[in-house]
C-alpha cells in the first residue's frame, strides 16, 4: 500500500505536487526532456573520453581528469541529495545503452541471477573499483580513468545489445547502488496517486505507450515506495493517461524513516560506503605514509597492493563491525535479532554517508575547482602556470565540511530515532535508539578527526 | 522517425570524428643532444634515442677548457617536470629558465646560488591552492648517479620519465671539491601506442558485441513486459 498523497491544494514547498506548476509540467512532459540535457551530456562525455585516452598523460593537465574527478564525481552526491537519481536519467552510459538498444537491442529478459544478487554484485563491484583505483592509480592516471570509462561503455553496450531496458543501470552499475542508497535521502519524490492507480489496469507507466517508453529501471509507480530506482526520466508522467503521477518535495532522509522492505545488502552497502569514505580520506592524509611504512614493517613486504588491501579491508570492516556490534547490543533491549537490527538500522548511516562523501569531495571541488577552467584553457593552447586552482581557502572548505558532517550526523541520528519508533510502536524506543545514537556519535567523531587533517589533491 | 535517424546519425558521426581525429595534445619529440659551457667546462647531454615517456638511456660528456675529457668527476643528474618548477615563483626563491640551459656553481655544502633543486624536492605549485599543507604534496625530482663509461670524460645512466612535456634536467658534477651545475630543459615526446591499442581493443570488443546483437536480433525472442 502506498502512502496517500493529497497535494492538490498544498504549497509546492510543503509536499504539493510540483507538476501543478505549469512550467515544470510542460518541461517534464516535453518531448525534448530529458534529451535536451542528455545529448549535450553525451557530447561532453565524448570529449572527456577523448581527453582521458588521448589527451595529456599528466592528470593535472588533463581536462578529462578535471571534469571527471574534480567536477562530476564531487557534484554527483550533491545531485542525489537534491534531485534523487536524476543524474541517471541523463547519464551518458544510459544514453549509449538506449541508443544501442534502439538499433540492435535483443530485449531479452533480465537474467534471474541479476535480479536475485544484483545489489550484492553492485556492492562487490563498488568495493573492487575503489580498491583498483588505489592499487592501479585510476584517478591520477588519465588513461586509467579512460579505461574505467571504456569498460563501463562496453558494459552498457553489451547490456543494451542483449537485455531489455536499462538492465545494467538497475542491476550492475556500481554507481547505481550508491545512487540508489543516496537517492533515498533525496528531496524529490515521484509516486503514483494511490486512489487513481487503484483503478488503473493498463500500467502504462511500467509498460510504456506509443508516446512514452516503459520505465527504464523496471519500477512501477503504482506500488513504488522508494526513490532508489526512480531516475526522474518522466516517461511515466508522459505515459500515464490518468495524470496520476505526482512529483513532490520532501525533507531530506524522510524515505529512510519508513523502509518497508529493508534489505541486508543495502544496509551492508551503507556501512561499506562509510568505510570507503574512511579509506579515501586516510590515503590522502599525510599520516598515510607513516601508516604505510608501519604496515610494510609488520607484513614484511613493500608490495602496495598487499599493504593497501589490508588497510582497505580494515577500513571497510570497522563500520560494518561497529554496526553489527551496535545491532547486537540493541538486540539485547528490543529482543530482535542482530541481522534484523543490522538490516533495519543500516539505512540510518546513509545520511552520514552522503554528508561524509560530499564533504570529502567538496575538498576536491573547491580546492581544485579552477583546474577545470585551466585544463579547458589547455585545450585551446593556453596555459595557466602558477595559478591557484582553489575556489575557497582551506579554512572555508573545512568549515563547510564540518557543517556537512554535523547535518549528516543529525540526519542519521534522527533517522535512527524514527526507525526505532517505527519498529517499537509500543515502547523500548529509547533503549533501541541509544546504542545507535552512540554509533552515530562515534562515526561522526571519526569523520571529524579525518577532516581536520590535511588532504592531498587529485589533480 | 527519419528525423530521429538523422539526429542519431549525426551524433554517431560526431562521436566517430572525436574518437578518430588526431590529438592536438601530442608533444613534439625533443632533440638528442644539447651542449652548454659552465665554469670552464663544456657539458654535453646526449640521449641515445629521442626522449620519450619511460626508460631513456643517456650520457654526459664533460671536457675542460682545454678540450680534454674530465675523467674524475662525480656526476649526479636530477630531473623533474618544468611545470612543477615554474610554480616556485609563488612559493620559493628559485628561478628556473625554461628555454635555455642555465648554470651555477655550488658551494661546499652543495647548495647552489639561488637553487636547491637537486637536494630538495620542490613542491608543485601549478593548480595547487595557496595553502602550506597542500604545497607539501610536491612532485619529487628523479635523481641518479652516473657511472663513467669506457669513453674518457663520458658518464652514462638511465632515467625513467613518467609523463611527457617539458622537463628540467639538472646535471651537477664535483671536481676537486667544486661543484658545477647546469640545467637542460628537455621536451619529452608523447608515445600514444598503448593508448591507441586500448582504444582499438575496446572498439573491437564493442563492434563485435553490436554485430553479434544485430545478428541475433533477426531471431525473435520473447520479450517479457
Architecture overview:
- The complex is a heterodimer of chains A (459) and B (225).
- Chain A has 459 residues and is mainly α.
- Chain A contains 21 helices and 2 strands.
- Among the domains of chain A are: 12-30 and 188-249, no CATH class; 261-452, no CATH class.
- A two-stranded antiparallel ribbon of chain A has the order 1-2.
- Chain A starts with 21 loop residues before the first helix and ends in a 7-residue tail after the last helix.
- Helices cover 25% and strands 32% of the residues of chain B.
- Chain B contains 5 helices and 10 strands.
- In chain B, strand 2 (41-47) and strand 3 (54-63) form a beta hairpin.
- The longest helix of chain B has 25 residues, at 193-217.
- The interface between A and B is large, with 62 and 53 residues.
- CATH topology (fold) name of the largest domain in chain B: Immunoglobulin-like
Q: How can the largest sheet of chain A be summarized?
A: 2 strands, antiparallel
Average pLDDT of chain A works out at: 91
What is the CA-based Rg of chain B, rounded?
Answer: 26 Å
Q: Tell me the helix content of chain B.
A: 25-40%
Give the arrangement of secondary structure elements.
The complex is a heterodimer of chains A (459) and B (225).
Chain A: H1 22-29, H2 35-54, H3 63-83, H4 86-90, H5 92-104, H6 112-136, H7 142-162, H8 167-171, H9 174-183, E1 188-192, H10 194-197, H11 204-207, H12 235-239, E2 245-249, H13 254-257, H14 264-282, H15 287-299, H16 304-334, H17 338-345, H18 350-367, H19 370-379, H20 394-423, H21 429-452
Antiparallel strand pairs in A: 1-2
Helix pairs in contact in A: 2-3, 2-5, 2-7, 3-18, 3-19, 5-7, 6-9, 6-14, 14-16, 14-17, 14-18, 14-21, 16-17, 16-21, 18-20, 18-21, 20-21
Chain B: H1 2-20, E1 33-38, E2 41-47, E3 54-63, E4 74-81, H2 82-86, H3 88-91, E5 102-106, H4 132-135, E6 142-145, E7 147-148, E8 154-161, E9 165-175, E10 178-188, H5 193-217
Antiparallel strand pairs in B: 1-2, 2-3, 3-8, 4-6, 4-9, 5-10, 7-8, 9-10
Amino acid at each position: 500500500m502506498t502512502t496517500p498523497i493529497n497535494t492538490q491544494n498544498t504549497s509546492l514547498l510543503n509536499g504539493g505536487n510540483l507538476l501543478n506548476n505549469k512550467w515544470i509540467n510542460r518541461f517534464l512532459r516535453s518531448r525534448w526532456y530529458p534529451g535536451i540535457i542528455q545529448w549535450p551530456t553525451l557530447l561532453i562525455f565524448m570529449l572527456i573520453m577523448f581527453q582521458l585516452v588521448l589527451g595529456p598523460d599528466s592528470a593535472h593537465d588533463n581536462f578529462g581528469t578535471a571534469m571527471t574527478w574534480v567536477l562530476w564525481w564531487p557534484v554527483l552526491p550533491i545531485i542525489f541529495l537534491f534531485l534523487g537519481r536524476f543524474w541517471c536519467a541523463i547519464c551518458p552510459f544510459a544514453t549509449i545503452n538506449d541508443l544501442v538498444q534502439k538499433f540492435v537491442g535483443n530485449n531479452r529478459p533480465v537474467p534471474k541471477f541479476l535480479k536475485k544478487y544484483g545489489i550484492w554484485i553492485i556492492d562487490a563491484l563498488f568495493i573492487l573499483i575503489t580498491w583498483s583505483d588505489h592499487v592501479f592509480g585510476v584517478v591520477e592516471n588519465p588513461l586509467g580513468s579512460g579505461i574505467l570509462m571504456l569498460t563501463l561503455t562496453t558494459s552498457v553496450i553489451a547490456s543494451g545489445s542483449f537485455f531489455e531496458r536499462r538492465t545494467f543501470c538497475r542491476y550492475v552499475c556500481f554507481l547505481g547502488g550508491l545512487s540508489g542508497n543516496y537517492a533515498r535521502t533525496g528531496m524529490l519524490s515521484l509516486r503514483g496517486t494511490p486512489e487513481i492507480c487503484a483503478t488503473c489496469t493498463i500500467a502504462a507507466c511500467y509498460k510504456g505507450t506509443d508516446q512514452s517508453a516503459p520505465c527504464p529501471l523496471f519500477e512501477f509507480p503504482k506500488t513504488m515506495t522508494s526513490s532508489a530506482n526512480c531516475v526522474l526520466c518522466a516517461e511515466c508522467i508522459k505515459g500515464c493517461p490518468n495524470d496520476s503521477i505526482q512529483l513532490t518535495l520532501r525533507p531530506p532522509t524522510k524515505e529512510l524513516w519508513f523502509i518497508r522492505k529493508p534489505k541486508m545488502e543495502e544496509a551492508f552497502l551503507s556501512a561499506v560506503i562509510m568505510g570507503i569514505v574512511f579509506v579515501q580520506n586516510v590515503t590522502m592524509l599525510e599520516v598515510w605514509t607513516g601508516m604505510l611504512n608501519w604496515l610494510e614493517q609488520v607484513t614484511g613486504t613493500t608490495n602496495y597492493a598487499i599493504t593497501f588491501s589490508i588497510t582497505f579491508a580494515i577500513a571497510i570492516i570497522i563500520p560494518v563491525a561497529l554496526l553489527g556490534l551496535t545491532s547486537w547490543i540493541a538486540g539485547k533491549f528490543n529482543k530482535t535479532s542482530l541481522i534484523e537490527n543490522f538490516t533495519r538500522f543500516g539505512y540510518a548511516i546513509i545520511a552520514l554517508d552522503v554528508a561524509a562523501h560530499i564533504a570529502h569531495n567538496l575538498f576536491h571541488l573547491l580546492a581544485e575547482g579552477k583546474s577545470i577552467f585551466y585544463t579547458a584553457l589547455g585545450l585551446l593552447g593556453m596555459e595557466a602556470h602558477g595559478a591557484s586552482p582553489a575556489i575557497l581557502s582551506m579554512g572555508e572548505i573545512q568549515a563547510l565540511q564540518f557543517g556537512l558532517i554535523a547535518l549528516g550526523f543529525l540526519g542519521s541520528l534522527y533517522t535512527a530515532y524514527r526507525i526505532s519508533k517505527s519498529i517499537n510502536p509500543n515502547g523500548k524506543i529509547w533503549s533501541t535508539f541509544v546504542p545507535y545514537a552512540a554509533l552515530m556519535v562515534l562515526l561522526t567523531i571519526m569523520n571529524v578527526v579525518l577532516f581536520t587533517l590535511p588532504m592531498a589533491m587529485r589533480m | 522517425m527519419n528525423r530521429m535517424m538523422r539526429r542519431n546519425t549525426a551524433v554517431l558521426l560526431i562521436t566517430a570524428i572525436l574518437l578518430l581525429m588526431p590529438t592536438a595534445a601530442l608533444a613534439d619529440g625533443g632533440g638528442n643532444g644539447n651542449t652548454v659551457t659552465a665554469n670552464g667546462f663544456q657539458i654535453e647531454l646526449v640521449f641515445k634515442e629521442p626522449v620519450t615517456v619511460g626508460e631513456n638511456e643517456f650520457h654526459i660528456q664533460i671536457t675542460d677548457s682545454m678540450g680534454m675529457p674530465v675523467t674524475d668527476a662525480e656526476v649526479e643528474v636530477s630531473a623533474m617536470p618544468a611545470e612543477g618548477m615554474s610554480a616556485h615563483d609563488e612559493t620559493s626563491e628559485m628561478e628556473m629558465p625554461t628555454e635555455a640551459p642555465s648554470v651555477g656553481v655550488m658551494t661546499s655544502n652543495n647548495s647552489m646560488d639561488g637553487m636547491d633543486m637537486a637536494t630538495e624536492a620542490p613542491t608543485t605549485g601549478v593548480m595547487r591552492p595557496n595553502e602550506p599543507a597542500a604545497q607539501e604534496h610536491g612532485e619529487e625530482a628523479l635523481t641518479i648517479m652516473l657511472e663513467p663509461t669506457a669513453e674518457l670524460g663520458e658518464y652514462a645512466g638511465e632515467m625513467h620519465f613518467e609523463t611527457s612535456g617539458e622537463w628540467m634536467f639538472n646535471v651537477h658534477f664535483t671536481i676537486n671539491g667544486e661543484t658545477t651545475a647546469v640545467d637542460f630543459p628537455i621536451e619529452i615526446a608523447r608515445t600514444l601506442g598503448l593508448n591507441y591499442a586500448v582504444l582499438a581493443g575496446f572498439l573491437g570488443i564493442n563492434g563485435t558485441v553490436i554485430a553479434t546483437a544485430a545478428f541475433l536480433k533477426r531471431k525473435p525472442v520473447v520479450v517479457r513486459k
